[in-house]
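Why does residue order matter? Because the sequence determines the fold. Keep that principle in mind as you read this record.
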Amino acid sequence: MRWFSAQLEDPVLQLPPLQTGWSVIRRALLELSGLREAEYRVISRSQADTGRTARLVLDRALAAGRLFPSSHAPAAEIASLFDRLRSAHGPVEKTTALKDGLAKLPPLEGSYVVRLLTGELRVGTREGLVEEAIATAFEEQPDQVREAAMLCGDLGRRQIWPPAMSWTPPSQNCSSP
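Structure:
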């Protein structure tokens, strides 16, 4: 749920930042796709959007047989990619980790990972709609989910509570990962 708001991690955990900037992303996309810098620039300038650029570059990598995606990527695989990026030291290790991670994703999902990394994820969903979706998914009352999100300050925290669990005030559950 955090990813819908372009928040990569649980703020309670206070994990270090990924420190994966545009230079690392660009290098990973270039290495993965086999494109030359000039070709990449043409795509990037024509799109003026990080996610769309990544999608087009990853589409080319797939067509060239450089991607080996599964039909879809489980959220745990993407979270693992973020963990590998966080533990990688320096731009070379980060580029390798990102390139290896993107190679396993379909181009569309890879483009959303890039959007998350750059903070440019735009899904057009208001928080209230996400709260209602969580309430429906976990068979909870929307007002209770809204209250939990308000008290925790983190919509994702409520999302990890088991659906069979009756609603417990967030003060008892907010800080536990």
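The two ends are 15 Å apart (CA to CA).
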